[in-house]
Hints:
- By secondary structure, this protein is mainly α.
- The protein has one domain (about 5-150).
- The protein has two helices and no strands.
- It has helices at about 5-120, 130-150.
- Helix 1 packs antiparallel against helix 2 (about 130-150).
- The longest helix has about 120 residues, at about 5-120.
Amino acid sequence: MTAGTILDGTLIVLLAATLGYCTLLYRRLAELRTAQASMKKLIGEFGAATERAQAGLLSIKTTGTELSGVLAERIEKGRAMADELRFINEAANKVADKLDRAIGEGRAKADLRSAGMVAGAVKPNASKAPQQTARRSESERDLMQVLQRAR
């Protein structure tokens, strides 16, 4: 064997090894290209999902802001109604107190009159009737004013 044949044999073996290695590299590059395509698809889907999430968050934020405004408005109306009801309640209590006093005075006078009539000592005084009517009218006017304010 000559040195040229040994060199040619060695070169053939090295070329065969290079060819095998190139085939292996080609397959790996093909797998990498396939993986790259799936990665592009995955990144595209991820981007779309991110955009949908951002749109959903914006929608939630907008809805929350609107609901917050509506809620604040209703709370303010409720507070105004509570204040108005408190005022009406106070006025009604005052009128009820006046009516209670007037009824108590009227009963006391009626008791005195009936006691006087039974005994025959005192006759009913006609001049006191207009005062009772005036008190009753005043109480009725107060009650009507409170009822009109309530509307």
